[in-house]
Write a structure and sequence with these properties.
alpha/beta, eight-stranded parallel beta barrel, 15 helices
Length: 449
């Protein structure tokens, strides 16, 4: 092709009206809305084209000059085997560890007891230092013990993961427990404002954000009772969300969480809040039991979306988790999903690459608005604890799950294998439980190929 012979006007700016004429010609009589406009689970219309949004400030991670933390999940009930895994994880790319209790709402049939003093020994023997240690589902007493046992092991940030709403709700002792944990907090967080349970039970993105917001406000009240200034309490809270294979909605959901966090801070009178700390875990509900290798692709899209959306920490559920306790290969693939995107694709080098993208900006706002409406509704009924206790939260999520339009699942209902390959795991899963009156439900459950 002779570039010099091209008409320079071929790339001139066009307008929306001219674009619609081209679309109408390409559709050949098909309906524009039915063909090109999709709907999210919250009923948000996603258009095929959006104008660029000007003058948008990037939504930064808490540590804007650093990559997100590649957090590896540790949930093997065999403590000695888990401690051996920890050394392997830190030697091969993981920069954070998430210890998952069997009592966690995100255990999914696995989980461990508090592993001290073996944890301290394993950290001391690890070939590289750990940037972040996260606890998920442990009691305040266990969290305090783990924090004390690892204080001298070079852990840069400690996230204690205390959540008053995922347990039976012993709010009376919360302030006292928090006072005992504050001394371990300065370089991490104390509590989780967690929406993952809503997602994995079948809720919508707006419902997940709303429960995260209600949990944040509920914990702020409890932290204030523990004599923490509101700005300090905001910094001491970790927002927790799920990331699935719906790329654009996941990116927008994570960005919307930052907008909601800032709006809550402003409502509390904190004009210059610290950036929210966002922990994102790949979705359990999107994992399939049939052809589980397809979960690797789903996880990759989810991690990409979480990274682009601005997560501070990302944890990947191994692809074989639906079959049992993941083996070393499954854990390695989960870990490498993140390290490849950072080390080879350099996905962490751009701060909020979605800023200004018309479609993502519009979807971010469109998710934040109904999430705020649901959140204020929860507050109007007395807060998250009362909404859980009344069964209204479970009913709301169940209704959303029932309304969800079933879509083809690759490897299950689409391109299903005639004969399933054997899956190697280290042991069987235990009972799967949830928190906040919600039970995790995978999208493939009850679906036959």
């Amino acid at each position: 092709m002779n570039i010099d012979s091209l008409d320079p006007g071929i790339f001139d700016q066009t307008d929306h009206k001219a674009w619609l004429k081209l679309v109408e010609r390409a559709l050949k009589g098909k309906d524009f809305q039915e063909t090109l406009v999709s709907q999210t689970d919250d009923g948000i219309a996603v258009q095929p084209l959006y104008p660029r949004r000007r003058d948008c400030a990037p939504l930064a991670r808490r540590q804007a000059d650093a990559p997100w933390t590649a957090t590896q999940r540790m949930d093997d009930p065999d403590i000695e085997r888990a401690m051996a895994q920890l050394g392997d994880d830190l030697a091969n790319g993981a920069s954070g560890i998430s210890l998952v209790s069997a009592c966690s709402g995100s255990a999914f049939g696995t989980g461990m007891d508090a592993p001290q003093p073996l944890l301290s020994k394993a950290l001391a023997a690890a070939p590289s230092r750990i940037a972040t240690l996260r606890l998920d589902g442990f009691s305040s007493g266990a969290a305090r013990t783990v924090a004390a046992s690892t204080a001298g092991d070079g852990v840069q940030r400690l996230h204690l993961g205390f959540d008053a709403f995922l347990t039976a709700g012993n709010f009376a002792n919360f302030a006292l427990d928090i006072k005992g944990l504050i001394e371990f907090w300065p370089h991490g967080t104390i509590v989780n404002a967690d929406g993952r349970g809503v997602h994995n039970a079948g809720g919508t993105e707006a419902q997940e954000l709303a429960v995260m917001a209600a949990s944040l406000v509920g914990h702020l009240r409890l932290l204030e009772d523990a004599s923490l200034p509101l700005k300090t309490a905001l910094a001491a809270t970790s927002l927790c969300l799920s990331a699935d294979q719906n790329q654009f909605t996941t990116i927008a959901k994570i960005r919307a969480a930052r907008l909601i966090f800032t709006r809550i801070a402003e409502a509390c009178g904190v004009s210059d809040p610290p950036p929210a700390h966002l922990f994102v875990e790949t979705s359990y509900r999107m994992l399939t039991r049939l052809d589980p290798e397809t979960n690797i692709l789903r996880n990759t899209i989810a991690v990409f979306s979480a990274g682009v959306g601005g997560a501070d920490e990302i944890s990947v559920l191994p692809h074989s988790l639906t079959h049992g306790i993941p083996d070393p290969l499954a854990r390695r693939l989960a870990r490498n999903t993140q390290t490849i995107l950072m080390a080879e694709s350099h996905l962490d080098h751009v701060l909020d690459p979605a800023a200004g993208a018309g479609g993502i900006e519009a979807l971010t706002d469109a998710l934040a608005e109904p999430a705020w409406e649901i959140f204020t509704g929860i507050e109007g009924k007395g807060g998250l604890a009362k909404t859980i206790a009344s069964g209204e939260l479970a009913a709301m999520v169940a209704e959303a799950r029932a309304k969800r339009v079933a879509k083809p699942i690759v490897g299950t209902t689409l391109f299903a294998m005639k004969t399933e390959r054997p899956v190697v795991v280290l042991g069987a899963l235990g009972p799967i439980t949830g928190g906040m009156g919600l039970m995790p439900v995978r999208l493939d459950e009850g679906v036959e190929a």
